[in-house]
Amino acid sequence: MVACCLNDDDPQSAIDTCKRFLLKYLRQEPHVAEHSGIDHLLVERIRSQMSWTPTEAELQDALPLISNTTVQNLAACGSTSAVIEQIQRFLAAGSTSAVLCILGHQEETLRRLGRAAS
Length: 118
Prior knowledge:
Layout: E1 2-6, H1 11-28, H2 32-36, H3 40-49, H4 56-62, H5 68-74, E2 76-78, H6 80-92, E3 100-102, H7 106-117
Helix pairs in contact: 6-7
């Protein structure tokens, strides 16, 4: 399962959408960090900074805690070409399939990925 968000007009916006998803996930499921190569101290900072169900303001304040590189190692986000590259990297690393958890506009994301892949 791969979190996926793309935006060719504003790739950073797509990356930030995946960061918000990852922040919520790490806040509520901290054990995931162990299997994802995320430092447990980062998870503790996230958990201490955000409530169980974080508000948009808490998420916005916590965005700088996670680097673009970290989120892009765990998700497929940014421009269409970056998303395709990240999916290919997961497959090259041994994944047999990439089940996309599309964050944002699902139809547009699938359309763009389909055009880029053909």
